[in-house]
Amino acid sequence: MNKRNLSMLCDFYEFTMASGYFSVEKYNQITYFEMFYRNVPDKGGFAIAAGLEQVIEYINNLHFSKDDIDFLRSKNLFDENFLNYLKTFRFTGDIYAVPEGTPIFPNEPILTVKAPAIETQIIETIILLTINHQSLIATKANRIVRAAAGRDVLEFGSRRALGADGAVLGARAAYIGGCVGTSNTMTEIDFGIPSSGTMAHSWVQSFDCEYDAFKTFCELFPHNVTLVVDTYNTLKSGIPNAIRAFCEILLPRGITECAIRLDSGDIAYLSKKARQMLDTAGLFDCKIVATNSLDEYIIRDLILQGAKVDIFGVGERLITAKSDPVFGGVYKLVAVENEHGYIVPKIKLSENATKIINPHHKKLYRLFDKETGKAIADELCVYDEIIDDSKPYTIFNPVDTWKRKTLTDFFAKELLVPIFLNGELVYTSPDIHQIREYCKSQVETLWDEAKRFENPHVYYVDLSQKLWDIKQELLKGKH
Questions:
Q1: Residue 30 is part of which domain span?
Q2: At which of 255, 287, 319 does a domain end?
Q3: Quick check: 7 and 68 in contact, CB under 8 A?
Q4: How far, in Å, CA of 267 to CA of 308, rounded?
C-alpha cells in the first residue's frame, strides 16, 4: 500500500467541498474532525481498533500528480487557482489516534484530526474505509479467537475476501485480533505474519489412490504435513491412510509432528473418532485441524460438545465478517477555530438521538481499577481537561445523570496519542507482533461480562461534567 498513490481514492464530493472552501477563502480555517462508530458489530461488547499504520502510509504519501490534476480539470468544475493549489498539496495538520489493538467503544474518538478545512475533508474517505475495514475484521477475529478458548485460529479466507487489499489487509487485521497466522502468502511478505497451508482435495483426487497422495506429500514435505482426510470416506479410508503414511514415511525419520484436516461432516464426532484412531496408532503429537464455514458460535459449540480439535481454520465468515459486514464508523466535524484562535464546539443534531454527536475537541481517558487492573469506564473530556487520579473522581451516566460513582483507588490512561503534529509524523508504529500482543493484553483488562457474545455488559463511556454542560448548552441552541 505504501507504494501506491491513493490520493484520488476519495469521494468526489470531497473535491467539490474543497474547491468551495478555496473559493470562499475558508480553506485555511482550522477544523476538528473525529472518527467514531455507533454500534458494536454482532451486538458485541466492544470492538478492536486497527488500520492506523495504513492511514499513516497514506498521509505520508498524500499528493496530487499531474495526471490527477488533469483529470479534475477535465470535469470542468474546478477553478484553475484551486487546481494550482493542489499541485503542492500536503497534509500540514495534527492527527491523534488510539493505538492499533485497543478495545474501543461506541461514540468515542478512534482518531481525531486538526487541520485546515480542505485537508480534513480530503482525507476522510481513506480514514473511514481503512479503519472501518480493519477494525471490523480485527473485531470478528477477536470474537473467534476467544471462542476457541486457547486453541490456535488461522485465517483461511483469501479466496473469498472482497478483493486483493481485502485479503491482505484483512489477514493483517485478523492477526491483530488474535489469529496465529494466515493462508495468504503476500501477507507474510508484507507484514511478517506467518503463512501456512494444508492441501486441497484436488491433490488427493489427482492420484490413483488416496494413500499414494498422502505418501507422496509426506515424502515431499515431511516437516510440513497436514493431510485432508475427507475426500472419500473420513473414517474408513482418509484417517487410516493418513495413519499409514505417517507411520511408514514420517516416524522412521523421527518426525512425530503432523496433522490431519477435517473439512466436512460432523466435526465434533469425527474429531473424537480421529483422536482415538491417532492415539491408538501412537500418533499423540498429530494435530487435528478443522475447517468448513466456521465462526465463533460453531467453534464454541464444538468445544462444548467435546470436539478434539487443536487448530481452527476460519475463512469466509472471518475475512468478510459475514454475520455483520459493516463497521459503521463515521467522520464528523466537532469544532472549528475562529479568527481569534478560539476553539468553537460544533454539534450535529438529529431526530434520532443516537446520531447526536458529542461536540468539541476532546481527550479520551480509560479509567482502571488499581487493585484488579480492570477497566472501569472511559471518560470523554474537553481537550484542556486533566483527570487527576490522585484524587477522588466522580463519573456519571450522560443519559441517566443520577447514576453516579466516585472512584478513589484508580488510575487514568489517556488513549489518544499524537500521530502527526504540524504535518510531521511523530509516531513510530509498533511491529505487527507487538500490536497483536498489545491487543491481547488490553482485552484482558475487560471484565468477562463485557466479552459475552450475547447480551454483553454495557461498558460505560461517560462525559466529563464540563463536556456534558457544553453539550447541553448546544442542544438548547445557546451557541
A1: 12-137+325-475
A2: 319
A3: yes
A4: 9
